[in-house]
Write a structure and sequence with these properties.
- The chain has a 3-stranded antiparallel β-sheet, covered by helices on one side. A 3-stranded antiparallel β-sheet has the order 4-5-6, with no helix packed on it.
- It has 1 helix and 6 strands; from the N terminus they run H-E-E-E-E-E-E.
- It folds into 2 domains: 7-43; 52-100, no CATH class.
- It has one helix at residues 7-15; strands at residues 19-24, 27-32, 38-40, 57-58, 68-71, 77-79.
- 9% of the residues lie in helices and 23% in strands.
- Strand 1 (19-24) and strand 2 (27-32) form a beta hairpin.
- By secondary structure, the protein is mostly beta strands.
């Protein structure tokens, strides 16, 4: 699983001149100019993030020929003749852009 750090906070500290970044033995470190303390970037506070789930609306002709479109991730049905114009699935929150392995139609 990927790990994320709060890069905005780190950039703000570096831009203020409070921290300096450098590489040692293949690892990135930050040194605080005030205390002189070094912190390995991997020990920086974690950011609160969630991975983006990509999906697409499955054409009703691909399943029962009716007017129900389905989310490719959770199967949530949306009754409409035209392709739903919502950018996210109302049930699972998948981003309906077809991204990653869900090639757009």
């Amino acid at each position: 699983m990927a790990e994320y750090i709060d890069i905005v906070g780190i950039k703000q500290a570096v831009n203020k001149g409070e921290m300096q970044a450098f590489v040692r033995d293949g690892s990135i470190y930050l040194q605080c100019k005030v205390s002189g303390e070094c912190v390995k970037i991997g020990d920086a506070p974690a950011a609160d993030v969630a991975p983006v789930v990509h999906g697409r609306w499955i054409d009703p002709e691909d399943d029962d020929g009716g007017t129900l479109w389905h989310c490719s991730k959770c199967g949530y049905p949306v009754k409409t003749i035209a392709k739903p114009n919502c950018n996210y699935c109302p049930k699972c929150g998948a981003r309906m852009d077809g991204g990653e392995e869900n090639a757009a139609d």
